[in-house]
Amino acid sequence: MTFKNVFTTGQAAKYLKVSPVTVYNWIRAGKLEAYKTPGRQYRIVSEVLVDFMEKYNMPIPEAMSPFITKRILVVADDAMIETVVHQALQQSGLKYQLKVAKNGYETATWMLRFQPDLVIISLLAGRLDGIEITKQIKRELETSESKIFIIKDGDMNASVEAILSLEADGILDTPLQIEAVKKQIYQLLRRTRTSEP
User: Fold this and answer.
1) Which of 18, 47, 52, 144 has its Cα between 20 and 30 A from that of 125?
2) Backbone phi, then psi, for 189, in 5-degree steps?
3) β-strand partners of 66
């Protein structure tokens, strides 16, 4: 699917679920930034429209997902996990900010400072207690809304049911496939909001 980078007032109105006149009025009032074409028609840049929707807590359609900057935290002390996630994100076409935490302290720090939309936790390395980190993320009010997906070894003793009971939103087994990682990221990074400008 090809995404347009610029919207007419009519197209923006469909995404905003209001009339084109309302969009025009928001532009004239300075609430919604737009530019004029030589034919004196208003055009709205996609990123500006997303910022407007986020500012006023409006639902963001999934079709606009490529224009939203996603905050993603990888909790892993394994360079292979970092590499696969980075490659999957680069190929996804999503706008994103990526941080990596290699221990529990870094995870706690980034969770509060960065407030990620998605946390990818590896259970592969013995130095990280991914299960305890998952519990802490879901327990804390400030971080409980973050989506979590867990990467585990297919031969691990921990059962899928036990991991899901931690309220993880998704699980992938190794060996990791880039397409599977991309699919999981897309599924978990859907967001909806509501309010009114």
Assistant:
1) 144
2) -100, 35
3) none
CATH topology for 68-188? Rossmann fold (3.40.50)
Domain with CATH 1.10.1660.10 in the chain: 6-60
For residue 97, what are the CA distances in angstroms to 38, 67, 72, 90, 154? 36, 13, 6, 11, 29
The fold for domain 6-60 equals Multidrug-efflux Transporter Regulator; Chain: A; Domain 2 (1.10.1660)
Q: What is this structure's pTM?
A: 0.68
* Strand (E) or helix (H) holding 44: strand 42-45
Type of residue at 29: A
Residue 102 has which token pair? 């290699």
Question: What residues does CATH 3.40.50.2300 cover in the chain?
Answer: 68-188
Please say whether the beta carbons of 71 and 96 come within 8 A: yes
DSSP string, 121-153: EE---TT--HHHHHHHHHHSTTTTTSEEEEEEE
Spell out the alpha helix ranges (H) of the chain: 9-16, 20-28, 46-55, 79-92, 104-114, 130-139, 160-164, 178-188
